[in-house]
Amino acid sequence: DAGVIQSPRHEVTEMGQEVTLRCKPISGHNSLFWYRQTMMRGLELLIYFNNNVPIDDSGMPEDRFSAKMPNASFSTLKIQPSEPRDSAVYFCASSSRQGRQETQYFGPGTRLLVL
Amino acid sequence: GESVGLHLPTLSVQEGDNSIINCAYSNSASDYFIWYKQESGKGPQFIIDIRSNMDKRQGQRVTVLLNKTVKHLSLQIAATQPGDSAVYFCAEAGNQFYFGTGTSLTVIP
């Protein structure tokens, strides 16, 4: 099993640009999570999906952030327009049961730097 | 608000010694707990989990202890090795899911 796949692994962009992060969950998993990790705030849950449907997006910072899951094998997290304070590592995770009560398997993360 | 917190942000141990990493949680509704290990430049990696109907669970060189009375969780690593050096997070799940702030474990050869 290839595990959770994220792309790109690194992204450097300028303030105001659109950023799209991509995630492919583990095949057969039906829950997908997006996290952001910074030194100051640690790991923060941004949004999670069950069976491609967004369940809880209360962690999404603001309207500049949006996430989609058009099918069971693909999700995107978009930031438009990006700001320097969005610089962080963004992780995608998936699990095999609905909701939070199952082990989540994390991808390698996307390191985003907004200049 | 309710949160997960760690008692010790850093921990240094000699190779071969046992390590104990502690975690306090405050959400009494949480009934599933997980320990993750995160190495530099990588995503968190599942180590071991425990449900609230248990107070102890063992894995390979790791043991998780759950004390629901005082809302305390610990991870014990036996015969700590240099490869165990990482940041360890506890996470709790119930009606919400939270990660702790992490403890950095350094193994001294």
Q: Could you give a quick summary of the protein structure above?
A:
Helices cover 0% and strands 54% of the residues of chain A. By secondary structure, chain A is mainly beta.
Characterise the protein shown here.
The complex is a heterodimer of chains A (115) and B (109). Chain A is mostly beta strands. Chain A has strands spanning 5-7, 10-13, 19-24, 31-38, 42-50, 53-56, 65-71, 74-79, 88-95, 105-106, 110-114. Chain A is built from no helices and 11 strands. Chain A starts with a strand and ends with a strand. The mean pLDDT of chain A is 92. Chain B has 109 residues and is mainly β. Chain B contains no helices and 11 strands. In chain B, 34% of the residues are buried. Classes of the chains: A mainly beta (115), B mainly beta (109).
Percentage of residues assigned to helices of chain B: under 10%
Identify low-pLDDT runs of chain B. Answer: none
**What sequence of helices (H) and strands (E) makes up the elements of chain B?**
EEEEEEEEEEE
Number of helices of chain B: 0
Shape, per Cα inertia axes of chain A:
globular
Strand composition percent of chain A? over 45%
Structural class of chain B: mainly beta
pLDDT average of chain B, as an integer?
Answer: 89
Mean pLDDT over the residues of chain A? 92
Please name the two chains that share the biggest interface, counting residues whose Cβ lies under 8 Å from a Cβ on the partner chain: A-B, 15 and 19 residues
Round the Cα radius of gyration of chain B to an integer and report it.
Answer: 13 Å
